[in-house]
Amino acid sequence: MRAIIQRVSEATVTIKGVECARIGRGFLILLGVGHDDTESEAEKLWNKIFRLRIFEDSEGKTNLAISDVGADALVVSQFTLFANCKKGNRPSFVEAGAPDEANRLYEYFVSLARSDVALVETGRFGADMKVALVNDGPFTIFLDTDSL
């Protein structure tokens, strides 16, 4: 599993002109599921994200986790995180998970997040989404369970 975590002051998802998700301060998590991923990878990735200390304390140091500041999370499926661009200029997505299994693991990841964070919003798996955000910092981190 792969994730891009962006610390945001706000973020939204719009589908066909209708806003379907909105958060304030928190994490926008773009989540990619690979073809070999299991619930174990989802748990490993969520545990790492939940404990990331990337919010500033009173001294301006990044010492606080999402739970310390009562922040929100917005999780958006992003199969393109598994793009392979080694051959030619058109990305291949053969390393991304099959849609049914990827959706199941995406929903499982969201359930893990909801067990720890008060407000967790989502995009819609497989939809054409417009994601808007105000990246706070900017602060962006890439995680891959293969290297955690």
What does this structure look like?
- This protein is α/β, with parallel strands linked by helices.
- The chain has a single domain (2-147), classed as D-tyrosyl-tRNA(Tyr) deacylase (D-tyrosyl-trna(Tyr) Deacylase, Chain: A), CATH 3.50.80.
- The protein is 24% helix and 39% strand.
- The chain is built from three helices and eight strands.
- The chain has helices at 39-51, 66-69, 99-116; strands at 2-15, 18-23, 26-32, 55-56, 62-64, 72-77, 120-122, 129-144.
- Strands 1, 2, 3, 6, 7 and 8 form a six-stranded mixed beta sheet that branches. Strands 4-5 form a two-stranded antiparallel sheet.
- β1 (2-15) and β2 (18-23) form a beta hairpin.
- α1 runs parallel beside α3.
- The N and C termini lie close together (10 Å).
Radius of gyration: 15 Å
Mean pLDDT: 97
Q: Helicity level, as a percent range?
A: 10-25%
Number of strands: 8
Number of helices: 3
| Outline type | globular
Pick out its properties.
148 residues; alpha/beta; D-tyrosyl-trna(Tyr) Deacylase, Chain: A; six-stranded mixed sheet; two-stranded antiparallel ribbon; 3 helices
Layout of SSEs?
Layout: E1 2-15, E2 18-23, E3 26-32, H1 39-51, E4 55-56, E5 62-64, H2 66-69, E6 72-77, H3 99-116, E7 120-122, E8 129-144
Parallel strand pairs: 3-6, 6-7
Antiparallel strand pairs: 1-2, 1-3, 1-8, 4-5
